[in-house]
Amino acid sequence: MTQPVSPPRDSADKVPSTNEAPAWRSLVFRADVRTLSLLGVLAALIVIGGITKPDEFLDTRNLQLVLTQASVIGVVTVGMTFVITSGGIDLSVGAIVALASVWATTVATQEYGFAGILFTAVLVGVGCGLVNGLLIAYGGMVPFIATLAMLASARGLALQITDGRTQIVSVDGILDLGERDSYVLGVPPLVMVFAVVTIIGWLVLNRTTFGRRTVAVGGNAEAARLAGIDVRRQRLYLYLLSGLCCGIAAFLLIILSGSGQNTNGNLYELDAIAAAIIGGTLLSGGRGTITGSVLGVLIFTTITNIFALNNLQSDVQQIAKGAIIVAAVLVQRRTASTT
Amino acid sequence: MAPQPPLLSMSGITKSFPGVRALDGVDLEVQAGEVHCLLGQNGAGKSTLIKVLAGAHQPDTGAIRWRGEDVTLRSPIAAMRLGIATIYQELDLVEHLSVAENVHLGHEPTAAGFVVRGRAARASTAALLKRLGHPEIEPARLVGELSAAQQQIVSMARALSHDVRLIVMDEPSAALDPDEVDNLFRIVGDLTAEGVAVVYISHRLEEIRRIGDRVTVLKDGRAVAVGLPAKSTPTREVVALMTGRNVEYVFPDRPASAPGGTPVLEVEGLAREGEFEALDLRVRPGEIVGLAGLVGSGRSEILETIYGARKPTAGQVRVDGHALRPGSVRAAVRAGLGLAPEERKAQALLMLESVTRNVSVSSMSRFSRAGWIDRGAERGAARSATRELSLRPDNPDVPVRTLSGGNQQKAVLARWLLRGCRVLLLDEPTRGVDVGARAELYAVVRRLADEGLAVLLVSSEVPEVLGLADRVLVLREGRVVHTAPARDLDEHRVLDLVMEGSPAS
Amino acid sequence: MPEPTYPSPFTSRRGLLLGTAAVSAGTLLAGCTSNDSSDDEPAANDQPAAEDKPGKQVTIGFAGPQADHGWLNAINDNAKNRAKKYSDVTLEITEGSNDTAQQIGQIETLINKKVDVLVVLPADGKALTQVGLKAMRAGIPVVNLDRIFNTPQAYRCWIGGDNYGMGLNAGHYIGEKLKGKSGARVIELAGLDNLELTKQRTQGFDDALKNYPNIRKVARQAAEFTVESGQAKMAQLLQAQSKFDALWNHDDDQGVGALRAIEQAGRDDFLMVGGAGALSAFQAIKRDDGVLKATVLYPPTMAASAIDLARALGQAKGVSGLAEYEIPASLTLYSAVVDKENIDQYMSTGFK
């Protein structure tokens, strides 16, 4: 989507030997420009927020609020970034979050306390990811269809478990983690989890063989297979990873909302995909950036925050959100193509 | 009295892309009814020039005159309206539409302005196909079901469905067998007899000599020769113009004594239904074995089956005496096989990635502990592998897509060199590689063999197989019809074997 | 001929059937009899609408949307439990569906089964008008529950809640509580903005506040009737408004999230009024240990009343307590405000 226009093959094939260096340097620079332009958008938003609501926006509590609100979708987006980088898509993330959050908050699960809730949320997430992965990697299903099916069934199962009721959490250890008293040096526990997931995600994607294989499968699955990579097993692991992220996100959401509900995670799939794409991950696969995805999530959360602080209504919010997505992508394309 | 103005004259065409000047003041003049050949190595600017001519690119400077009048080709449609049609090398057909629908795409015969008259479209398509010598192609069939050669014919029919005065053909013979090439030349002859001009692009000098009238040679974005007589200019001179050097195919010397030792690769009774049958072959360390045959003789399928990328219906592949699990690429790679596939970009390279990452992808466990990659070690190893093959530029951080075809091939070879592979399977190793760079690649392959690698080579260019291999297996319709040391064969003999199936002697 | 049912003493709290908006603030409808149901299930008043003597057997077809929200779940429970109380009623209940086409199919099946009366809570009132008409033409009276059909021809009787009245009563309650406080600030946490009912609730709220010149509504954000959105939007509102005096939240389900956000922000300097009547909200009001002091009803007991009406229609009776021979064509429920004073009376109707 945001791939810069490349010169035609004929001319790109043979770069005169004297300007080899600029050709690759500009590519590296371009990658930086992409991140820089995202930071620019974020900075612009911060300026807008600071001007319109200086007291409420430029406030530690607000920073904590924005980061906390970004945590749940942020963790989901990290997993989604891996899947998209590998050339896949996971439409079931929102539904998995919903299922994991209700399964982990049933009366029966709550009897096992903190550990029971955490364990169940993660296990349900991983389980759903496993099913997705098996269907896609070994069942030969198209990711779009397999995860769409998971979306429908996980939402259905979540509804069946709750009967449409809100399951309120009464485990103190869980509830406490969402309160101010649990902040460490001003950092909410949810934000810490988000940060840890982001850092691990970045390291795995950029510094490990797992990350390399992910990029290779997304860039050219056939080439990866012929290079001796087990493409199917890699795909299985990737959906498993996305499911794991959903499980963690569900746990964070339980902490945040103090409850489990089958409507949780509504449209997370679209938010996560949008954040990843705006961040610079190629929808067609082969290139992914955790930094970009996280910036994408922060941009969205900041927009929502500024709008709410300025008391703008949801119709205006939606229009502006769409416009900002377009603007962010256009700015990236422009800056990428002029360097 | 005044001489007729040329059909097309382009002068001083310049076109730059970020970081690259693709065309630097190119002139081209085409007369009605001539076959004008455009020659040049990859990257010389041929594709850019024909895209300018097709209206797909806008030149930065320069003038285009069409039948004596200045024109601007703002879009492919504008070029088409003038009567300029282009048949690209990578066919631009819609697989899920029928032949007739493809031919008339964008200018369907309609009733009342929007109702497509399918029958009329099919009838006119059938007429075009007949004119092109392929009445057997059904206008109602889906293009995806046709062979590559038939698709090319459809592409040509699409060009002719317009009122065309100039046809640009970009390497039209690349995917064709000899008899199909003959048909192509007949069509070109018919067209020029009707006064249509043809701009013909090809790597194959002998073709140009057969049908060309005049030749324009491009090098590094400049026209180094304009309008040379095609039939009388010596080959040596044309090659010299293209490469700036006096090089033709130069093959490295074979070792004095034939390699001995036990075979490292043994293939026994390998078969895939409908593709090839009961194949036996052995390759010793240090030996280069070549497979020669026509398109469709099962050459690539054999390599891919040995490599485990396709599952055999019968037979066995052994490396060092150990049978490989059939249909498993991973087993083959672990046993020491490496494949440099025919379609490098589609099957081997990660085009967005650097040279280092392309080279290291099959050996990642060597630079990693518990999945954690030591990037310094990785880069160093990749660098020493690419240096050994003199890959240019000598910088493992450049994206692989910026390399020339020959250097991309070296990156693939470096991958297997780094992996420490013992058997190298080469499928069309010089496809898309410049004439000048081929000799270097041949030398690399021979050197690797001399260092103990077993090489199995497949090529559609018979001189390449004969020049590089020690031993040649001639294939016809999926069956080995002859085996002989390369030095006992010549090109005619191989072609006879390929066509007739029985040894001429 | 319908059997006249008067004169019968007006002894029940069937006042629910009579009410409509435009009642002054804080006025609560006091029951004439106490409701001492100790049932755990969400339950309506046990008093039947028609004569309690078993009459002719009536088969009632019931079609509702998918119960993906606590309130809709309560609708189903109310209908089922009410039907069980009548020995002369058989309830044919369909699988809830949010898909218009599927719901049409389900209702047509009920028509073909020749049920005596239909009770329909459409997923989308406008889209299901045709099938309502079809049932009426087939001679099956339709009780249209809450989401109204396009035309009165499609139902014999409509019974539903009063969204405008909900906002109005919430506004008046808050207005009375903040009486005498100058420069009072109020915020609103609305429901899903795509729905007309959200607009109606907000309109009612705004109209009520016009009566109190000392009060200004300083902020409004729309959530999505979910806990998650309630928490997110409330957190933002709390950050935006460092000081305010009252909050009206349209929906108790999203209120769970809103209360969580309030707790997380450590705020307790205002009064909160909820909406709909969830059990958790009732319990919080009764405990009186937080900001939530009241909630405005949008009673799911309307489903039980709909069964009463359907039975009465099937047996050709009128409503006891009214002078009319016939069941009214339209019944708008009163959106009562429940606070600590009257909470015990409503506790059993709270939905989970």
UniProtKB/TrEMBL annotation, chain A:
It holds the Pfam family BPD_transp_2. CDD domains: TM_PBP1_transp_AraH_like. It is found in: Cell membrane. One of its GO terms (cellular component) is plasma membrane. One of its GO terms (molecular function) is transmembrane transporter activity. Its main location: membrane. It comes from the Bacteria. The chain crosses the membrane at residues 33-51, 91-108, 114-135, 182-205, 236-256, 290-309. Keywords: Cell membrane, Membrane, Transmembrane, Transmembrane helix. It is a multi-pass membrane protein. The keyword Transmembrane applies. This is ABC transporter.
Automatic annotation (TrEMBL), chain B:
It is found in: Cell membrane. InterPro entries: AAA+_ATPase, ABC_carbohydrate_import_ATPase, ABC_transporter-like_ATP-bd, ABC_transporter-like_CS, P-loop_NTPase. One of its GO terms (cellular component) is plasma membrane. Gene3D superfamilies: P-loop containing nucleotide triphosphate hydrolases. It is a peripheral membrane protein. Keywords: ATP-binding, Cell membrane, Membrane, Nucleotide-binding, Repeat, Translocase, Transport. Residues 8-245, 242-502 form the ABC transporter domain. One of its GO terms (molecular function) is ATP hydrolysis activity. The keyword Translocase applies. This is Sugar ABC transporter ATPase. It comes from Streptomyces resistomycificus.
UniProtKB/TrEMBL annotation, chain C:
It holds the Pfam family Peripla_BP_4. It is found in: Cell envelope. GO terms for cellular component: cell envelope. Residues 1-30 form the signal peptide. Residues 31-56 are annotated as: Disordered. Residues 60-315 form the Periplasmic binding protein domain. It comes from the Bacteria. PROSITE patterns: TAT (PS51318). One of its GO terms (molecular function) is carbohydrate binding. Transmembrane segments: none annotated. Keywords: Signal. SUPFAM superfamilies: Periplasmic binding protein-like I. InterPro entries: Peripla_BP_I (IPR028082), SBP_2_dom (IPR025997), TAT_signal (IPR006311). Belongs to the bacterial solute-binding protein 2 family. This is Sugar ABC transporter substrate-binding protein. It comes from Streptomyces resistomycificus.
